[in-house]
Amino acid sequence: MKNLSDTSCPIARGLTCVGDAWSMLILRDASLGLNRFDEFRKSLGIAPTILTRRLATLTEEGLLEKRRYSERPPRDEYVLTAAGRDFLPVLVLLGAWGRQYRGEGRLARYIDAETGAEIEPVAVDAVTGAKIGTRPIRVATPE
Amino acid sequence: MKNLSDTSCPIARGLTCVGDAWSMLILRDASLGLNRFDEFRKSLGIAPTILTRRLATLTEEGLLEKRRYSERPPRDEYVLTAAGRDFLPVLVLLGAWGRQYRGEGRLARYIDAETGAEIEPVAVDAVTGAKIGTRPIRVATPE
DNA sequence: GGATGTTACTATCATTTCGATATGAAGTCA
DNA sequence: TGACTTCATATCGAAATGATAGTAACATCC
User: Fold this and answer.
1) Which nucleotides of D are covered by protein (CB under 7 A)?
2) C1' (C9) to CA (B51) span, angstroms
3) Helices (H) and strands (E) in chain A, counts
4) Which of A41, A45, A78, A114 has the most CB atoms around its CB within 10 Å?
5) Which residue among B17, B19, B124 sits closest to A20, beta carbon to beta carbon?
6) For a pLDDT cut of 90, what percent of chain B falls above it?
7) Interacting residues of B44 by C-beta distance below 8 A, sequence separation 6+
């Protein structure tokens, strides 16, 4: 896919760094506490070549950060940056969509770790409080 | 990418149908009112081969629906289904992320068509009202 | 009525990416 | 010394991508 980072669309901009399934699944796992190469590999069943590339891209793009957790032997792990952590809501919302429209059979559920209640994610406009999608949206392109 | 639709993770389920950048951009355009092959092609600069395939997949997956708008000559257009419309919040949130972390230069803004105010999308838990990401999340896997 | 235009594609094919498997590097541990 | 761990890279066939050209089925203009 061609480089979209020069468009004025923030969605396209977002997709240039995280526009594929593996990257999003890595971010999902990272958000759930995984950090190491082999943890990702085993969790995802991803080929190591691809994993290496995806981790490198996500690191370059500033969603992950390489951190040395052992000097001898030299070992690195990947931790989420602020940008990476802030991607979680997108994933959670995608999950909510998946639950609603691809929810056949047993599905994992996301639970508030403190209250124990199941989370019901919705996107709202912080200004009006209205659910996104219930009011028509217009796009204002910069001059 | 391998088929993830049998996992219990709703995020992975979602990604099996819409896990690539072109599909999401098509859904974005469809949400903004585009419907026809050539509208998508011109808006995205996508090769017609790829566009054909993506439209077919999105139609099979039930996010778009083919509708004949002219009998002679035979012409079809693509309209969003309920599932397709409900994907918009995911895109809007992705856009909010893109604005925050890839927002250099001039960016399009999303405007409430009625009030004219800029939309500030956030994901919240409908139960607690808390912003997603501000409270720790646990995953409950089905037995 | 022939030329040209419109719309939604398909054919072809070089390039790119994916992904499975094997291997390497830099150590530790017994 | 030899097995084990962890984070990768090398190789290579298969699959997807994408640029370009062409086609089918009409409408419209002169």
Assistant:
1) 5-11, 17-22, 25-27
2) 10
3) 6, 5
4) A78
5) B19
6) 79
7) B22, B25, B26, B29, B51
Distances (CA, A) of B48 to A61, B37, B39, B45, B56: 30, 9, 11, 9, 12
Whether B107 sits inside 8 A of A10 (CB atoms) is yes
Measured between alpha carbons, how far is B11 from A138 in angstroms, rounded to an integer?
A: 28
| pLDDT for position A142 | 80
pLDDT for res A71: 82
Dist CA B107 CA B121 (whole Å): 16
What pLDDT, in 10s, does the model give residues B8-30? 899 999 999 999 999 999 999 99
Chain B hits for A138, CB-CB cut-off 8 Å, are: 110-113
User: What positions of strand C are covered by protein, i.e. any atom < 7 Å from a CB?
Assistant: 6-12, 18-22, 26-28
- Look at A12 and B25 and tell me if their CB atoms are within 8 Å: yes
Q: Which of residues 65-94 of B touch strand C (CB under 7 A)?
A: 73, 75-77
Continuous segment of H or E residues that includes residue A51? helix A48-60
3-state secondary structure of A22: helix
Name the average pLDDT for chain A.
Answer: 92
Residue with the two structure tokens 């956030």: B122
* CB contact at 8 A, B15 and A97: no
Nearest nucleotide by C1' from B45 CA?
A: D18
Q: At what angle do helices B88-101 and A10-18 cross, to 10 degrees?
A: 80
pLDDT of residue B5: 65
* B36 pLDDT above the threshold of 70: yes
Residue with tokens 């390489």: A66
Q: Which residue is nearest to nucleotide D15 (CA to C1')?
A: B1
For residue range A26-56, list pLDDT tens digits in order: 999 999 999 999 999 999 999 999 999 999 9
